[in-house]
Design brief:
Order of helices and strands: HEEEEEEEEEEEEEE
Strand content: over 45%
Number of domains: 1
CATH class: Mainly Beta
Distance between the termini: 33 Å
Largest sheet: 12 strands, antiparallel, barrel
Shape: globular
Number of strands: 14
Structural class: mainly beta
CATH superfamily: monomeric porin ompg
Number of helices: 1
Amino acid sequence: MFFKTLIFAALLAGINCRYILIDEDYLPELIEHSRVRRQVQVGAGLDNKGNWDLAGKVPLAKSDTNILSATGMATMDPSNKLTSYGAGVALDNINGHGLSLSGRQIPDFGKQLTAAANLNVLNTPDHNLNANAFVTKNMPSIPNVPNFNTYGAGADYMYKNTLGASLGAARTDFLQKTDVSAMGKLNLFKTPSSSLDFGAGATRSFSPFIPKSSWEPAFKFNFMKSF
């Protein structure tokens, strides 16, 4: 039922995409002369703990201002064991805005369904600022553990597509837990079809069950390729 819901959402979005003519967008890499173009994207990320994030995005339908894509993602631990995988749909607009719906399977835990939104607040040749928010329905397969939600928001800023920073926070009421992060970002190289970025910062969790939490360093390399 979980993945049938995702397929149904994708079909509905595909039917409606041809009629959507909002003057907005997401994914600047898909923009050429103020028009959205079809592009397949793949990406990989490696963090300081040795975990890998893999992602892909395949266009399904488009209008002059919007593009509907199928998405896929997976994560692996340092031993290359698959720790999660999933798929979804994303609707991106040429002004930097976007919506997405995705489902994820996590072995030994259960399933997650996430709805997310991105709003481009500022876009000039030198400055780009985005606000984002999400809500995740966690559906554990663990006995006696009920479904629960995690929700959060954040902001991302980039200067001349080279140097940036991000702030984010997420709250899980069921666990009485708040996670916060502050990261910096540096683009190491960029071509019309590929990009390599380095991010570094710190994360921290606040909870009555973690009375002595502290800031933990974090860094990550991200590579993206478009076809």
